[in-house]
Amino acid sequence: MAAVVQLEDIHKTYDSGEVQVHAVRGVTLDLHKGEFMAIMGASGSGKSTLMNTLGCLDRPTRGRYLLDGVDISQLDRNELADLRNEKLGFVFQGFNLLSRTTARENVELPMLYGGRHFSVSEMHERAMKCLEIVGLANRADHFPSQLSGGQQQRVAIARALVNQPQVLLADEPTGNLDSKTSVEVMGVFQKLNDEGITIVMVTHELDIAHFCRRNLIMRDGRVVSDLQVTDRLIAEQEMAKLREAESAAKLTA
Question: Whole-prediction pTM value?
Fold first, then answer.
């Protein structure tokens, strides 16, 4: 099976005055359909730069990146924007929902851009389907201020799914959430991955990375470890443990 993502000797160098910063140094990897990969590393390791490259938000200084067989170095700015909209879905740490629009309207936003044209009814139908996938169809008409942090992140995930991307990119998606809500959100990601969606997640939390199937660790711009997760955590089991702990705490209070 051809890889959805192919990176071949990717380098990214930034000029900072008289100093050159080598953010990514010679990264080569393949990501196949249905994988769930966490990118980890300390601050300055290059994980965010690598994520920006995968998201077509930044071009590599050297090397080749093929996304679903398309060489992004051959695309102009408009073509790159269309590719991002059609092939990639983005989930951010800060949710980035529009405060004056409902959950459904937030999910519909990506369909307003790019080369495809949808009728109003098609937009509504696709948005509602994605909200149903993340368990929020009954909150479709709620505004972000009426939703919890975990619910807002699930709306953001639905928004990322609405154009049926080849790869879902999540940048510290649990960074603003408490432990219980983080496990709930990871449960959503695991469900999506079990249904065949390819996911790449940047995280600095080892316990979050254990929910993924593959862990990529970076240091000084290089990949120093690329391992399959043999003892993958299952969100449902972790939630059961959290509930037991809460019940025990109430009994002893």
Answer: 0.91
Tokens describing residue 57: 């938000």
Instruction: Look up residue 8 and give its DSSP letter.
Output: E
- Cβ neighbours for 135, distance < 8 A, ≥ 6 positions apart: 154, 188
Q: Where are the domains of the chain?
A: 5-93+166-252
Strand partners, 19: 16
pLDDT in tens, the chain (253 residues): 679 999 999 999 998 777 889 999 999 999 999 999 999 999 999 999 999 999 999 999 999 999 999 999 889 988 998 899 889 999 999 999 999 999 999 999 999 876 678 899 999 999 999 999 999 999 999 999 999 999 999 999 999 999 999 999 999 999 999 999 999 999 999 999 999 999 999 999 999 999 999 999 999 999 999 999 998 999 989 989 888 887 787 777 6
Inter-residue contact 186 to 178 (CB < 8 Å) = no
Amino acid code (one letter) for 231: D
- Tell me 44's DSSP state: T
Q: Are 132 and 184 in contact (CB under 8 A)?
A: no
Q: Give the class (CATH, top level) of 5-93+166-252.
A: alpha beta
SS3 49: helix
Burial class (CB in 10 A: 0-12, 13-18, 19+), 26: middle
